[in-house]
Amino acid sequence: MTTTTQASTGPVWDWAAGHGPVTGALSATTGCLAVATTGAATGMPPGWALTLGAAGAIGHTISSLRERLSARTIAMRSASWLVGAGWTTWAMTTGPLTWAALGSLATIGVGIGAAARSTLLYEEARELEAIAADERQVSRELSAERRAIAAEWVDRVQRVCNLTLRILAVEIWPTGTGFTIDAELPAGGTTYDRIAQHSAALSADARLPHGCTAVASQGVHQGRVLIDVTTVNVLSEERTYPSDYSPLSIYTGIPWGYRTNAEEICVFLREQCALVVGPTGSGKTNMVHVILAGFARTTDVLTWVIDLNAGSAGLPWVRAAFDTNGAPIEGVRPGIDWLASTHEEAAQMLDVALAIGMRRKVAYQDLMAERNTDQLPISAKIPQIMLVVDEGAEILTSTDRAMKDLAKKILEVIRMLRAMGIRTVLTALGATGSVLGNLMIRREAKARVCLTGGEVEGMDLSKVFPGSRGLRVDQAPYKGAGFMGTPESAAALFKNWRILPNQIREIVHATSDMHPTLDAISAAAGGDAYTNRWAPDRTAWMRDPANAPAAPAAEQPTTGGGLNLSALRTTQESPEEALARKFREQIDAQFGTAPDPQPGSERPAGPGLNLSALRPENNAARQAALQLLMAAGTEGTGASAIARALADEHGTTRQTVAGWLKEWAETGEAVRVGEGTKTRYVHHRYAPDRPAED
Fold this sequence. Notes:
Number of helices: 21
CATH superfamily of the largest domain: P-loop containing nucleotide triphosphate hydrolases
Strand order of the largest sheet: 6-5-14-13-12-7-11-10-8-9
Helix content: 40-55%
CATH topology of the largest domain: Rossmann fold
Oligomer: single chain
Strand content: 5-15%
CATH architecture of the largest domain: 3-Layer(aba) Sandwich
Shape: elongated
Distance between the termini: 113 Å
Largest sheet: 10 strands, mixed
Number of domains: 4
Number of strands: 16
Radius of gyration: 40 Å
């Protein structure tokens, strides 16, 4: 038989606790009574008790002085020892068990308890007053600093902007990298724009370090302004991606970098798309990896990547989950859910995305009615699909027929599938009118990033952040630095973290168990194209260089109307084509039609067809140069800029590009604008309505 003992509900004594006023007085009086009774019974000399009390008083006085207690507390403790010792001496002489002795001892105990309580309250009040005094001292020092800052910036804004502000508060950033001024604008309809447009002048007047700015933004209402002043340049230093891989959600925001005040900036992409602009060398590829790292940490997002440049943006996130034979590593899932590196695979991915979106519109009507919402409730069971398209903005502006098909499908995804949880992140090489001219991109991509890396040409910040004032490219001359704006945060300086391949592998392994799986309804709509996305035959190109994907369709020639240039054909030459080729060779030999120049020679002038496509060493670079000219839009570009962009891949010189531009100007393909060092060329479709200058 098992018995249980119920714990007592009475008071519980804490024997480790110190004495309070009551227990201290009780302990003192009972101790005195015990000593007096024992001493009287044994015949102990009464003077010993008095000596012991004096020693106790001296000891407590020394310890109280070390604790820096008040004189009142020291006197109370010493008096308690001496009074107790005196009573013990008297009781040992006259008898401790008489009513007179016991009554006087009780009176002494009550007196000691009251005195202890009084001194305890006094010590607490004294300690609180000391703390308050310290706080007042710190407050006075901070107030003095804030008042100095306020007075300085009132004078500065008056001097630079010709406005008189009334500063209400100055907040010093906890990171120690700057401060924020909250001010009231003067009456008369003055807006914060009057200060925002003088950002550079205010920064120069304040002698701020390079990379530090004074940026004005909206206050709590339209008559207030916030001025963020950065005093420490945090953009110049390189910071690695944070090692905190804790789970994220599409609803809680995904960190993409940090502001000049060293605080993280997050994007919310449940309903909006994103656009990342950055020229070569600005850190755009690293930014893509930071974006993919954030998506890998979310528990309700699946990431699909389209990169027609051999899939380089997504490969590190896939290879970490497969062995050299293409077999998946047990317990590890790729950091992205699908990777397309060819036109065919990208088209298949977009078709699946559209099919999933259309199927979700019908299949989840009951769920949306139950949640009383017109948007699909995204969760780990029904994840959002984020479609990251590297250089996707260029696909949307391409004139190639195959690229136009992809562009049409991307725009359909952007336009039709917001409510169904399919959004896009597009990247672009430049902030030009041709890239940002699409209304759909400007309207849906409300989260925008412009990485400058110090590049000035093709970086029109007013096109990326219309309405924002005071943004200048030279404020962010560092790789990985630029400007970022979201609906929740105004466009301002930021920098993203540096992320290296070994950290990508670490993130893939650390976040494998966070990734959701596509819901059954969407997976069924995706069919075999989605189910077999990681099949060895479809991923062989990732492991075998011989199976590398073909060049992007934008670089492959298309057939159609116009000249039938056999040099652009890669198929086997037919007998009819061979006969035609021999016929052309005879014509060239007899009439000298556009002879092919020798390497290093100048292009000869003369009559005849310009069969430049027959020059394999120039055709790819020439077509790429034409694409860059078109991408420059109404701003136009020059030979130096095009040559720099083509130097790494094609080794093209400025002299060669200048010849092409001159030729295109003569044939009407381009229009020359300006003279001397200000000369630039504009593609004819973006040319101004006036004749080209000679």
